């Protein structure tokens, strides 16, 4: 075959750097029938990589995914060396050495002197400039980025990074290889973080800053993002897994490129990195682990005290829910299913009856799916009393409002609750973005007012953000936390500021995804695929924006920008234009994508 004139066949592949990532890449290649040359200057690392592959393939045999002969073949295809000269006959070299220009440039210089003229050189960087690395190579047209995600055997995404110097044939060859490995290749341009990490690390940085500001505990930040967004890991635990030092390096590169303050590494990242507290690999980072390399978290001085030490709450047997929409109905169902007597009040008796009927349908669906018995559904519905006036809240112990996200509307309702509810009743707002103190101050008892932010759909979502103001009484806080446990929800504590935990971390990430499209860096489909396949997100950012509603998203972005005054939080002009055009997402049939009308 004429290697110069046709697309190269990437059969013999070298992996330089046999840490966790390099070992994972080597495993995937060897399993896919490639001859793999593993290179590491450390004999210990090389042995560890061979041992890891042996253990992984042994597990596959035990699970009957490989035969013993197939396992032997895989192991025979992986050879390790400590000298780069061993890569001389490789069709492709993938370097995954530490994120340092000096280290990577030295590797590329040595590779230039060893490999064939047509050998493709790929860098596994997620933070450094591929263009800069290519420019210093003797043959820049054969240099590109090949960014796998950890753990490599499990993660489907591979970002293929080309620059102005990269030959299309090189891109085509590694794209085909990625598909043959069972991966999903996404072609991206050369900028720090590319797509997935470009969005992920900004979010991780904001979470670190939130923890550093003592706004919420590390446990509550992580639980909020897992339970509120369906993420596989919380951001601080993920930083520990990635490596705090690595995250800092990536963010430094992103900030140098973007100048966006959201990418300026939170000081705590530097402090932890300088102290050698890099996360799981060092045994301590944001959390403390059983041992270096362990993923088992152990208690330390930052571990929150047992919830029982909060003190006693107030007795609650009856609950009032104000509102007739999806959230109000869902919250009423949650309380009634947990044995509370519920008064569901709307603007009219008819609206209240309709809201109760909606709950009946919801319970019916649960029965049909075998999640609930008909008897339990009937008992739940029997505990709900519909009412056309807030006067029905006279004897409730807890009043929860779930009306429109409009401060004037909520203030009017809380002024009414103040007159109707008995002394000692806890008054809770489900606001997701408005200041709780602003509704508390219209009452004569701001000490009884607290935020209780449920997530939609309330019967399914486990998270409740418990938002206390500077005036909220301790026993009111204790009451709401106790109630959350009784209704089988997970409470997280946070202060009274815009976005609380989830929205303050989620919406800047969504906004940055829109900016990527505005800048023509990547398409909607590329970005959604990158975040689902590379970040483990249940939905891509544009899928989520269309579900949430672009108008709702814009309103939250505006609140965050107004509160924190950070230019990086300014809503994307594209989002504003779509909302102005009435393209609000699935509910209007068109948002970032078009949907068939039902």
TrEMBL record:
Pathway: Lipid metabolism; butanoate metabolism. The keyword Glycoprotein does not apply. Gene3D superfamilies: N-(1-d-carboxylethyl)-l-norvaline Dehydrogenase, domain 2, NAD(P)-binding Rossmann-like Domain. Residues 12-190, 319-496 form the 3-hydroxyacyl-CoA dehydrogenase NAD binding domain. It holds the Pfam family 3HCDH_N. It comes from the Bacteria. InterPro entries: 3-OHacyl-CoA_DH_NAD-bd, 3HC_DH_C, 6-PGluconate_DH-like_C_sf, 6PGD_dom2, NAD(P)-bd_dom_sf. SUPFAM superfamilies: 6-phosphogluconate dehydrogenase C-terminal domain-like, NAD(P)-binding Rossmann-fold domains. Keywords: Oxidoreductase. Signal peptide: none annotated. Residues 193-289, 499-595 form the 3-hydroxyacyl-CoA dehydrogenase C-terminal domain. PANTHER family: 3-HYDROXYACYL-COA DEHYDROGENASE FAMILY PROTEIN, 3-HYDROXYBUTYRYL-COA DEHYDROGENASE. Belongs to the 3-hydroxyacyl-CoA dehydrogenase family. This is 3-hydroxybutyryl-CoA dehydrogenase. The lineage of its organism: Bacteria, Bacillati, Actinomycetota, Actinomycetes, Kitasatosporales.
């Amino acid at each position: 075959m004429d290697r110069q004139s046709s697309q190269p066949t990437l059969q013999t592949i070298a992996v330089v750097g046999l840490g966790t990532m390099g070992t994972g890449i080597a495993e995937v290649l060897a399993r896919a029938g490639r001859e793999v040359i593993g290179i590491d200057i450390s004999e210990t690392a090389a042995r560890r990589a061979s041992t890891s592959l042996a253990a992984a393939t042994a597990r596959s045999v035990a699970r009957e995914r490989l035969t013993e002969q197939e396992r032997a073949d895989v192991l025979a295809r992986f050879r390790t060396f400590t000298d780069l000269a061993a890569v001389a006959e490789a069709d492709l070299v993938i370097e995954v050495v530490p994120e340092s220009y000096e280290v990577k440039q030295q590797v590329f210089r040595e590779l230039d002197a060893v490999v064939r003229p047509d050998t493709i050189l790929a860098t596994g960087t997620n933070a450094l400039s591929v263009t800069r690395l290519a420019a210093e190579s003797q043959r820049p047209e054969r240099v590109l980025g090949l960014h796998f995600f950890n753990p490599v055997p499990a993660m489907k995404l591979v970002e293929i990074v080309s620059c102005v110097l990269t030959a299309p044939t090189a891109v085509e060859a590694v794209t085909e290889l990625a598909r043959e490995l069972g991966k999903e290749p996404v072609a991206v341009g050369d900028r720090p973080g590319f797509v997935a990490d470009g969005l992920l690390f900004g979010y991780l940085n904001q979470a670190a800053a939130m923890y550093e500001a003592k706004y919420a505990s590390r446990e509550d930040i992580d639980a909020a993002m897992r339970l509120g967004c369906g993420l596989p890991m919380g951001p601080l635990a993920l930083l520990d897994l990635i490596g705090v030092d690595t995250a800092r390096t990536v963010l430094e590169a992103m900030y140098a490129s973007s100048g966006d303050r959201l990418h300026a590494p939170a000081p705590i990242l530097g402090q932890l990195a300088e102290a050698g507290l890099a996360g799981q690999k060092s045994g301590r980072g944001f959390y403390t682990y059983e041992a270096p390399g362990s993923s088992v978290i152990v208690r330390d001085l930052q571990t929150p005290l047992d919830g029982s030490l909060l003190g006693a709450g107030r007795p609650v047997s009856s609950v009032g829910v104000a509102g007739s929409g999806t959230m109000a109905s869902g919250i009423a169902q949650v309380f009634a299913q947990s044995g509370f007597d519920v008064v569901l009040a709307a603007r009219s008796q008819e609206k209240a009856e309709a809201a109760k009927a909606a709950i009946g349908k919801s319970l019916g669906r649960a029965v049909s799916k075998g999640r609930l018995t008909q008897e339990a559904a009937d008992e739940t519905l029997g505990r709900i009393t519909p009412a056309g006036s807030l006067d029905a809240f006279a004897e409730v112990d807890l009043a929860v409002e779930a009306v429109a996200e409009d401060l004037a509307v909520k203030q009017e309702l809380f002024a009414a609750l103040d007159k109707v509810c008995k002394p000692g009743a806890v008054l809770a707002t489900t606001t997701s973005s408005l200041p709780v103190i602003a509704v508390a101050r219209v009452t004569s008892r701001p000490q009884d007012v607290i935020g209780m932010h449920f997530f939609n759909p309330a019967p399914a979502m486990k998270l409740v953000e418990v938002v206390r103001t500077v005036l909220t009484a301790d026993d009111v806080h204790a009451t709401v936390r106790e109630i959350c446990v009784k209704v089988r929800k997970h409470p997280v504590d946070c202060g009274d500021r815009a976005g609380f935990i989830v929205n303050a971390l989620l919406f800047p990430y969504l906004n940055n995804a829109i900016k990527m499209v505005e800048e023509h860096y990547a398409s909607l489909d590329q970005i959604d695929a990158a975040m689902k396949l590379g970040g483990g997100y249940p939905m891509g950012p544009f899928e989520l924006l269309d579900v949430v509603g672009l108008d709702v998203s814009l309103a939250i972005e505006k609140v965050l920008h107004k509160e924190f005054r950070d230019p990086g939080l300014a809503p994307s002009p594209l989002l504003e234009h779509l909302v102005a055009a009435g393209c609000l997402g699935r509910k209007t049939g068109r948002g970032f994508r078009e949907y068939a009308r039902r």
